[in-house]
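Anyone up for a design puzzle?
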């Protein structure tokens, strides 16, 4: 199975962009696990963001899922801020309103950076490699005047995630490919209506 994912990553994953002179860094959100902790892909995106932000000092902006339970986005936000602080990030962090999927994530972050007068000419999006192609389409559409740079991480998915599609790497890969196709054929406005199913 490991060989399969390496092969797919070599064919479907995006090559990371060179990072320099970004205005904004965004770690994409991956919700919470059943223990109400950040899943592995969130930890890895935050680590990558912290490493870049400490060197270059850009503003960090993120949003969190609000449909797991009442207040789940605020709880996830607090975990992310605490983790970034533990990594030595003391730069400005902007937290957007709660989200239901990757399209609302980009829209809500756009609203927050505009409201806070934050430059966003060049945006670095850090995400799980399976998510990268779809994320690039979304961010280019929502931020048409910005240059979107992608850096990806190799997140581990398992049965502990609250959202059923994120309970295995194979399910998440399939979901990401289907979303990528839907974004090409239907566009972000249609994909925005989709919400990840939760485990019963």
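Challenge accepted. My sequence:
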């Amino acid at each position: 199975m490991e060989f399969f994912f390496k092969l797919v990553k070599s064919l479907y994953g995006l090559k990371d962009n060179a990072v320099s002179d970004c205005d904004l860094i965004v770690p994409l959100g991956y919700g919470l696990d059943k223990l109400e902790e950040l899943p592995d892909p969130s930890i890895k995106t935050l680590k990558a963001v912290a490493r870049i932000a400490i060197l270059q000092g850009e503003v960090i902006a993120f949003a969190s899922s609000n449909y797991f339970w009442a207040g789940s986005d605020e709880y996830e936000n607090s975990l992310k801020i605490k983790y970034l602080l533990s990594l030595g990030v003391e730069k400005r962090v902007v937290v957007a309103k709660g989200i239901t999927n990757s399209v609302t994530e980009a829209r809500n972050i756009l609203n927050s950076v505009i409201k806070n007068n934050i430059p966003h000419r060049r945006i670095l999006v850090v995400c799980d490699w399976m998510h990268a192609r779809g994320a690039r389409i979304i961010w280019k559409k929502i931020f048409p005047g910005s240059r979107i740079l992608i850096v990806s991480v190799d997140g581990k998915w398992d049965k502990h995630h609250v959202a059923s599609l994120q309970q295995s790497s194979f399910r998440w890969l399939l979901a990401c490919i289907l979303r990528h196709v839907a974004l090409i054929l239907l566009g972000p406005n249609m994909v925005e209506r989709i919400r990840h199913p939760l485990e019963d």
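A detail worth pointing out: Residues 20-191 form a domain with the Rossmann fold fold (CATH 3.40.50.620).
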